[in-house]
Structures are given as structure tokens and as C-alpha cells.
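Batch manifest, entry 17 of 40.
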Amino acid sequence: MPAPLNAADLALRPRRSALYLPASNPKAIAKARTLPCDMVVLDLEDAVAPEAKEAARAAAVAAIAEGGFGHREVAIRANGLDTEWGAADLAAIAGARADAVLVPKVNAPEDIARYHDALSGAHPQMQLWAMIETCGIVGNLPAVAAMARTTRLSLWIMGINDLAKEMRAQLTPCRTPFQPFLAMSVAAARANGIAILDGVCNEFRDLELFEAEARQGLLFGFDGKSLIHPAQIEPCNTVFSPGEADLAWAQSVIEAFGLPENQGKGAIRVDGRMTELLHLEQARRLLEVARRIEGIQ
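Output type: C-alpha cells
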């Protein structure tokens, strides 16, 4: 058995774009193997009708066994354990070679514990990803995130559509009603070493609107964004990749701290701006992420 994945390695993995597709659609799965997304989520939940759930489950497991996804992380989104399909989904996924299982509508730490236990027979590298999409989790974000210390939990994906439905809130382009929730979720994730992706943009034909929403997600600190259409992949990857100015800044910071006269200093001036050791850490991470992105293109 391979060793469990290193948390530091996961933190540097490019996760700019995660494409959802129905596991019941073989053409979509075949196409996903050729697309430049960083992650593929084979969906057994929202995208699959009740009468097709069992067939979709078998198709997802078969697609994982067939492979061919290259550098892409591949997850299967299961139905919740409180549904008639959830237990069978988790049992099948635990026996597959997927990178992760994505579970819906988590409300409390106990939910994470149940899913973790259901994966007890899975290979050591299988991660547990969770949808953050209910009113119930709002007050439990720190406690749920802390479960990453003792379980397979490693990544969150926002589900703003479901949250809007529960709140009876309007889902506008600026996402005003959800901005506090977005910030709280990112903060809780970062405090516990969890990667976090922004939710989907429903307007897949309007790529200008999509890019604006992706940039809002970048502003909040998300690692990337979940997608519902292949056309969204390229603008998403662009937004969540370090730009030339970012890389130039990072290189300047590293070079400045490397000068003999700056050895042992906690704060120096770089290009006329006060720069601290925390900025040096950010610069190193930025360059490493850029290196990894370059390696998969």
C-alpha cells in the first residue's frame, strides 16, 4: 500500500479548476480525460436522476479503474449517507482507486466522522472532500474544519446554490448575501490546512460574468473554483494561476532576503515597500505553485 499523501504536498498541488460531470455520461467522462482542468468530479448526486443512480455508480468506478486522467485529481461525489444510495456509494468508492470522495451537505463534525469511518477500507491516499452548502454548518465551520487533524478530510467545495435555496436568498452576480459565509469558510479552512474551492457559476454561456466571479473568489482566497462546463476551464485556470507581476514580485522578495546585508532581518524594503518574513514565505509558495503548474501544461 502507498503511504498517505503528505499534507504539505497537497497544499502546493494546483487546484485551480474542478469540473463536475455526470458519472452517467460516458462521452463526458471520455472528454474529461483530454481537458486542461486540474480536477474532475464524477457526480452521483445532483446530476444523476434517481433511476440512474446505480448505473452511474458502476460507471464511475469503472472509469476510475480504466484510468487515463493523467495529472488530474479524480473524485466521485457520493449521495449523502442519509439517502437510500449513500451507503452503497461509499462502499463502492472505498474499493475504488479514486483520489477522493466528495460528500454533500455536511452540517457537523459528526458527519465527517461518519464518512471517515465509511472509508476505513479505502486505500491510504484517498481523501475526503466535503461540500459546504447548508445553513446548519455556518456555526460549525471551525469544528468541522478541525476534523482534518484526525480524519481524511482535506478539501472543501462551496455549494452556494444549495445555500441560497435554504436561505431563500437571491443569488446575484456580486453574491452579496453570501460574502460573509465565503470569508468565514476560507478562514476556517486555512486555520486547519484544508484546501478550499469556490462554488460554481451557473451562467456558463457568459464567460465575462464567470471571470468576474472567479476573480471575486481569488480575492477571498480560494485555491480555485468548481465548474459546470468545459468552456469555463481556461478562464478559471488563468485567474487562479500566478501572473507575471506576481512572479516578478516573488522573485524580487526572495533575492532581496538572500542578500548578505539582509541576513537575519525580519523586515526589509523591497521595491520601496516594507516586506517581512511572512512575505518571503508567500513568495516561495507562489513560485513553487507556478513551477507545478508549468509541469502539467
